[in-house]
Amino acid sequence: MSQLENIEAIEKRLWSAADTLRANSNYASNEYFMPVMGLVFLRHAYSRYLAVKDEIIASLPTRGGKTPKLTKKDFSKKSAIFLQPEAQFDFLVALKDSEDRAKAVIDAMESIEGDYETLRGVLPKKEYRELDNEILGQLLRALNPEELKKVTGDVFGRIYEYFLTQFADQKAHDGGEFFTPVSLVSLIANVLEPKKGTVLDPACGSGGMFVQSARFVENLHQNPNDKLNFYGLEKNGTTIDLAKMNLAVHGLVGDIKKAISYYEDPHNLYKKADFVMANPPFNVDEIDAD
User: Fold this and answer.
1) Which of 242, 229, 236 has the alpha carbon at shortest distance from 269?
2) How would residue 163 be classed by pLDDT, with cut points 50, 70 and 90?
3) Smallest Cα–Cα separation from 235: which of 177, 163, 161, 170?
4) Pick from 219, 162, 212, 166: nearest CA to 44
5) Is 81 helix (H, G, I), strand (E, B) or coil?
6) Mean pLDDT, residues 8-16
7) Which domains does the chain have, with CATH numbers?
8) Which of 90, 198, 238, 251 is most buried, with most CB under 10 Å away?
9) Total Cβ atoms within 10 A of residue 141
């Protein structure tokens, strides 16, 4: 089996496990959406953290035989999130049934929000109080299979997008409008070739246009935060949270505001953006053409 086939098999197994656990919980799919995406966010963040940690440590200067502490700035340079020990996924997976997993997950989210101002009030927290402690433990373990630790590349980035796709197909949030298929977003980014400048998505959904634009720049062996400025508009508050999570987990910085771009331009970017990328909800009725 090729690595791609192996990753696709892992994606399906992870989704099947999460969906089975939903069936055994008190949540409907639209209620299960944010707590699951919150855990996938944590696992994705941990994957990127581990991928660059050793490289960062090796690059730090030693003084008197001591290496300085890792900082948020070190990880931002590598397009990753810095995680305190209590926010690292292995810590959460290792919790015993006698321990309060919901509190631990909430503490992990609050730890990240404390380090990243753009995420304050964004990550799901209270939703985990509604999950049975055993179900939450099973879900944490399901998202941390041993085989996942052996594959290379941004595998959990794919899995994060796969989960967004599956939830969109279920119309678990906002009728599925929050997500544009990765293949389409990647095509748009590769056609426009956003190498440098301001990128505006006036209907940004979960932020896929920004992530794919960043990947285009990374493929040129450059840091997207040095080359691109991301601005987004989105009408739904929960979707804005998803977009901010998506940016953060990829180590990206952006400004996303709640607005309906048919009527508003809070970024004041009319005719000023270098690149405008969008897959707006064309099926929306009753838009005032004037």
Assistant:
1) 229
2) confident
3) 177
4) 162
5) coil
6) 78
7) 3-172 (1.20.1260.30), 176-276 (3.40.50.150)
8) 251
9) 13
Q: Is 48 left (phi over 0), alpha (psi -120 to 50) or beta?
A: alpha
Identify the three-state secondary structure at position 257: strand
Give per-residue pLDDT as tens, 97-114.
Answer: 999 999 999 999 999 999
Beta-strand relationship, 254-258 and 197-201: unpaired
Most confident of 73-87, 175-189, 191-205, 246-260: 191-205
Nearest-5° Cα angle at 41, 11 to 127: 110
Distances (CA, A) of 152 to 34, 51, 157: 27, 9, 11
Q: pLDDT tens digits, residue range 260-289?
A: 888 899 999 999 999 999 876 544 455 454
Give the closest residue to 92 by CA, choosing from 84, 101, 83. Answer: 101
**Distance of CA 106 to CAs 6, 27, 99, 117, Å?**
32, 18, 13, 17
pLDDT at 8 over 80: no
What's the predicted TM-score (pTM) here?
0.81
User: What is d(CA 213, CA 281) in angstroms, rounded to the nearest whole number?
Assistant: 21
Residue type, 175: G
